[in-house]
Task: inverse folding
């Protein structure tokens, strides 16, 4: 069973059309949940870390939220430059590496 | 520029060959991580080093090995290459080795094509 499942796999939005990406996770003890952005041919770029249920973080048009089972990345009034693959990752307590989901590929059309 | 440097950016080789990928971590970071990214599997953790010592191991094949040198740069060695090894290989670094939630800084990756 995958520890991290992201949905949808791909999402196409019109510019200005707000939406949410989902990341559901299964871990015994969550040390942190991470969101990264990856542009084609580049390495993932860190966006947010969330540590506990109820926590929220914002950056420009992006807002990440966390519950005990899932995280959402809300995109408000997206622009074409927000087009990218968004990756979610979790880290359990103990000396464990980040485990990534397969990502959501977002396309924002002008 | 993330501060994590990976070389080479692109590499094309034949089955059965051996290659070495190199990574210089961000200044001040002691941990280095290697991940493999393929279209169907996403980012898969291979191995982590902290200050020269192996700290964690993922599903790294026996044909693959890595090390971290005293100057903290790391090398990932891939041998007896197969077609299925074609992928993007990312190096990432972080300040600590696991004391807290680790924010990883990724390099731009090395794209390996095995023909």
Result:
């Amino acid at each position: 069973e995958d520890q991290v499942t992201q949905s949808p796999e791909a999402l196409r939005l019109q510019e200005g059309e707000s939406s949410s990406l989902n990341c559901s996770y299964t871990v015994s003890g969550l040390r942190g949940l991470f969101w990264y952005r990856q542009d084609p041919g580049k390495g993932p770029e860190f966006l947010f870390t969330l540590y506990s249920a109820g926590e929220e973080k914002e950056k420009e048009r992006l807002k990440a939220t966390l519950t005990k089972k899932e995280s959402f990345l809300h995109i408000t009034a997206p622009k074409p430059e927000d087009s990218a693959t968004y990756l979610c990752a979790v880290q359990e307590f103990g000396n464990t590496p980040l485990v990534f989901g397969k990502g959501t590929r977002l396309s924002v059309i002008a | 520029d993330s501060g994590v440097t990976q070389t080479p950016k692109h590499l094309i080789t034949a089955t059965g060959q051996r290659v070495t990928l190199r990574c210089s971590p961000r200044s001040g970071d002691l941990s280095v991580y290697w991940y493999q990214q393929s279209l169907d599997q996403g980012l898969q953790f291979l191995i982590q080093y902290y200050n020269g010592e192996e700290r964690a191991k993922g599903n790294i094949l026996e044909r693959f090995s890595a090390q971290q040198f005293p100057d903290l740069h790391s090398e990932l060695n891939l041998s007896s290459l197969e077609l299925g090894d074609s992928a993007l290989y990312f190096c990432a670094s972080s300040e600590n080795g696991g004391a807290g939630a680790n924010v990883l800084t990724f390099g731009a990756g090395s794209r390996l094509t095995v023909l």
Summary: Chain A has a mean pLDDT of 94. Residues 41 and 84 of chain A are 11 Å apart (CA to CA). Chain A touches chain B through 25 residues (CB under 8 Å). Chain A has no helices and eleven strands.
